[in-house]
Amino acid sequence: MSLLEVRDLHVWFELGHGRELHAVQGVDLTLDQGERVGLVGESGCGKTTTILAVMGLLPPNASVAGEVLFDGENILRRGEETVAAYRWKDLAMVFQGAMNALNPVKTVGWQLREPMQLHGVASGARADARARELLGLVGLPASAADRYPHEFSGGMRQRATIAMALACDPKVLLADEPTTALDVMVQAQILQLLVELTERLGLTLLLVTHDLPVVAQLCQRAAVMYAGTLAEAGPIDQLYHQPRHPYTRLLFAATPDIYGEDDVQWIRGAPPRLDRPIPGCPFQPRCDRAFAPCPTERPPLRVVGPAHRAACHLNDLDSEVQPSAGAGSRA
Amino acid sequence: MRRSDYLIKRTGFALATIFVAITLNFFLFRVLPGSAVTNIAHVPHASLQLQEALKHQFGLDQPIWVQYLRYLQQLAHGNLGVSWADQQPVRTHLATDLANTVPMLTLGTVVAIVAGIATGVVAAWRRGRAADYGHTGVALLFYSFPTQWLGLMLLILLASYLPAGGMSDPFLIGAGFWQRVADTTRHMLLPSLTVALTLYGGYALIVRSSMLETLGEDYVLTARAKGLPAKAVVRRHALRNAMLPTVTLIALSLGSIVGGFILVEVVFSWPGIGRATYEAVVQRDYPMLQGTFLVLTVSVVVFNLLADLLYFRLDPRVSE
Amino acid sequence: MSAVLPETGLGAEGEVGPRPSRVGFMRRLFRERPSALVGGALLLLFLLVALLSKWIEPYPIDAQVGPVFGPPSASHWFGLDDSGYDMTSLLIEGTKVSLIVGLAATLVSMVIGGGVGIAAGYFGGGVDTALMRVTDYFLVIPDIPLMIVLAALFGSSLFNIVLVIGIILWTGTARVIRAQVKSVRQRVYVDRAASLGAGHLRLIVRHILPQVAPLLIANTVLTVAVAIFDETALSFLGLGDPTKVTWGSIIEHAFDRSAISVGAWWTLVPAGLCVSVLTIACYLLGQAIEDALNPRLKVAHLSARGFRLRPLVGAGRRAL
Questions:
Q1: Segments forming the whole domain that contains residue A294
Q2: Binary contact (A104, B219; C-beta < 8 A)
Q3: Which of B227, B240, B241 is closest, CB to CB, to A115?
Q4: Of A23, A237, B232, C74, which one has the fewest beta carbons inside 10 Å?
Q5: pTM for the full predicted model
Q6: Tell me, what's the ipTM?
């Protein structure tokens, strides 16, 4: 049984005047213990919303449908009520620490101790000691516990948020763009840290990012999202070498910028609006392989290989339709 | 090290502002239309001889900067001149007046701050719902009422239950200490209430705005993600941070507090420094007017400095 | 992570606002924010009354047309004051003069404050520091006492009152404008390389002013309310123009001439309500404009109401 399973997750946002944004449209994910899985896609594709929904961290104008199964239990069963019990102890999140994820008026140590005391993991001197241990684990000096967030650089703050996420020994770590807004050298260090931690502590990692080299480096499997839906999901090397969705192919075949900083920008066009129902394949307007059924029929998510699924009508044609991707090749 | 620099800088600024106010005080009263003698010595239609004598006596025949230095010198000795109304030292009047104003004003302001914060937080928490509209509407209403008008309205409504003016009952003779305290307190209720109602509206709006801003910050989401119950998130994370801009804005409102209580004291004949200002204006008692202006300005500057210090304590990011 | 709403291509706007078409902006403002509509409509109503005052005043404002302190009746909607003057006419006249004072004083403060703010923000460096130092002093020195002193010293003609209020109010505008100019200036300089030889004035007028104008307008609207409040305060303290009728002078007369003790509430209540309604209208409109210019993109991460669950109807997309 998978440790974490997301089944048919939908998220809507109310936009006022009766309008609604269908931000996540039926996403399925599974994570087994000890796996590192990536969730990739361009800005606005719904990947952040998805992982926020997993922990029930949605704003008041959101509504959710579907299931999130942790160890077989649907933690979204009664919404905030049920999911709150799993926060930080079982599922923890690493936000983009370089920005404002840390409270500016409390010391780092205090913020690490807070969840420990809340969930009864440790208190008093024991909590303090444990906090300093965790800081050491992520490569920060123990004295950092007495400092305020603004006294740290972006990279150090990111490490601190990772330490904070580990405070209650969670089983699953959800990381939302943990290395964006950091410079390349620091990025590499943080990624290395994440690999070490997941291996050493047996953590399961769900990594959300738009940065493909990062996913390639870190994850064994990945899911590609586009316009709120899953385009493709499977082992990393399959996504690279045998993509079964034009979007994936275009995404992964991009020549990586040497600094790994650029979002893939050269797919012409823009993602569709999500406040209106889309009749066919959402990628169709930008697709270089679109054909007859694409504008009118939604392609279902189909198994196309071992642990490999894709949602594209091209897979219905029983032939070798996707040329293997070489760097820079575009059909 | 950088933080102590901030303290020094703010204190320096406060002192500089006081100095500017003192200088303003001096020059404003020297550039009056009309004869300086008439204005300073308060002896209209004096004969030429008398004018010359008075000029000399008051040092008005000296160059202006000499007069200025003399003024500063006198100020340094605590000499604020003599009231033209009753020939008593201005300093003595001011001391009594200030002592009368402080309790009334403190009561009103404290109530306003507490009510304002409570209202603002509730309105932000229930944003977009009936409670929000209700609280915000009422706050806006009280914020919009002219202070003196509100005082008069309260007077009309509550005159039968509470004393209509003054600080004490003139017929209370030979009363014990507690009786007098009770009497003063009864007299204080209406003016303090007016001050409180006038101020709380503005504070509620500020706090609401601040809280809404704070509730959208990432660290609030982090706190929620940690499994903190909503109330704890608000109390421990949101409120503390929302208070920072609130302190700043309250400090900026000190000027209007002063305006407010001057009007209140006039409406209720409360013998404080606000009413003293008013009477000084009515009687054209310039030494008193100068004195009250100075006291009011210095008070505001000092409180501004205190607010700066409070902000400094609350926000670890402050440095220069 | 801060925007939970993904970008949707719904015309999300850039950081320092692109140049919205003037008409488009106005239309959007009024359509999306009913508060702007209400505020604007009320202000328009007051303006109309002021403009048409000469024709709609039912009685002359300085002639006795009925019994002293006559109550409201069919022929005198708002009753009569202590001299038998018709209150309705007085209120209409008061609307006109109060608005004149409010608008004129705001104009003064806007010109000075806008000028200082633009100069400080645009030129930066020493000019900025010097101007801001002066502004800071004036910000701290309490408004109303300074106004009282100035008004007491320089006389109470309408002209003087307008100047006095304007001189006090410019500081708030200056700060706001300076901040905006600073943020705009960076862009303008990058866009229009100064190497093109565009003179400062041209740059300011053609490029900075249009960007700053909307915020200036919002600030102006809010300042009008404060100016009118200040005028009522000055009038109440006897420093208003005795020959003119304003809302403030009506309130002052009600206080001064024992209208309260006689129970003639109609001489007091409407004038205060006018000020109140006007202040609320200004606040609604000004706040709506400010909000439209700086839309709060952040959604509250926390609120009394949480996210909702929906039962799944219709087939989900499952892997085959």
A1: 224-316
A2: yes
A3: B227
A4: C74
A5: 0.83
A6: 0.85
